[in-house]
Amino acid sequence: AKKFVYVSKFVGEPKLSDFKLEEEQLPDLKDDEILCEAEYLSLDPYVRMLMANRPVNTIMLGRQTAKILQSKNPKYPVGSYVFGNFGWRSHTVVKPGTNVLPYEQKDRTDIANLLPDFGNLPRSLALGYLGMPGHTAYFGLLDICKPTKGEVVVVTAAAGAVGSLVGQIAKIKGCTVIGFAGSEEKCKWIKEDLGFDFAFNYKTNDISACLKKSAPGGIDCYFDNVGGEMSSTIIAHMRRHGRIAVCGSICAYNSTEPVKAPMLQRMFINNELKMEGLLVYRWTDRYSESFNQIFQWIQEGKIKYRETITKGFENMPKGFIELLKGVNLGKAIVQV
Ligand code: NDP
């Protein structure tokens, strides 16, 4: 079995030399345990943030889908698939319901769950639209921004796992959707294939000018994946009673200096804006609702998904570094 540990604290952008591939001797199975083999592994920006607080020489955090190779648990038969929070591991011995990662809550019912039947859809979606990023987009937009028909919704990191779904759900709800993403290719995808009304490359355009053109009456909802100056610029274009869901602040994950952004209090007062941070776990009890709804929308062709797949377990660090550089369109995944 193989696992990735990180061997030096990240400074700025992670480097290949920050990671080490190690052999791991797995224990024999005890009663109730299963042996799983990773199939798809998820690459997520939050890992960059959380690892900053973990000691070096610990395993990289991360989720995966995995096939059961051996089982001493009758509820988890050999050949079936689980979703696991196992870290960057090729093989894992686990008792379902208990956590194998250090520094994580020890007992949780959602660890090593059997995957539901995905029908004709790939199991990798358990890491994207039909998993954590999907729940984030669904509840963050619908429960916090609460967009209604005809309103204007802006989303940043709009061609990523969360952002690309936020925009599509907002379209289903009858909104005008404006996305900001970091390349022409990404903008073309979200506008032409996903049906966003406007898509702008924030690296080559003036954000204020883009919003004056696309939302002359102002913005009602902002789904913020990025934070920093870009978000302050967008918030300055919100109209009365606008709602902001603060989901991520990826502009700062790799930065070594504190991020400075313009003061916004006056804007909040004048327009009576509402801003709320979110952690997806708030909605754990309602995950089946978002799963069922997003599954249905995909089946109906109302929502399209895309994945950027890096092949080979040994390429996990490369895929992770590329995710933070913005190489991915849609969900970033590693296929073993
Ligand atoms: P994405 O698939 O969106 O990948 C990250 C993207 O962020 C990159 O592709 C890149 O796209 C963009 N990006 C990177 N650096 C910057 C920067 N400096 N400024 C602007 N954009 C940047 O990842 P996810 O969809 O998984 O996550 C999106 C956000 O949501 C993250 O901030 C993440 O931490 C957050 N999140 C929060 C959760 C919560 O519970 N609060 C749960 C899940 C995710 P581009 O080319 O457009 O720059």
TrEMBL record:
It is found in: Cytoplasm. GO terms for biological process: prostaglandin metabolic process. Keywords: Acetylation, Cytoplasm, Fatty acid metabolism, Hydroxylation, Lipid metabolism, NADP, Oxidoreductase, Phosphoprotein, Prostaglandin metabolism. Pfam families: ADH_N_2 (PF16884), ADH_zinc_N (PF00107). Its EC number is 1.3.1.48, 1.3.1.74. The keyword Heme does not apply. SMART domains: PKS_ER. It catalyses: pentan-2-one + NADP(+) = (E)-pent-3-en-2-one + NADPH + H(+); nonan-2-one + NADP(+) = (3E)-nonen-2-one + NADPH + H(+); 13,14-dihydro-15-oxo-prostaglandin F1alpha + NADP(+) = 15-oxoprostaglandin F1alpha + NADPH + H(+); leukotriene B4 + NADP(+) = 12-oxo-leukotriene B4 + NADPH + H(+). Monomer or homodimer. This is Prostaglandin reductase 1.
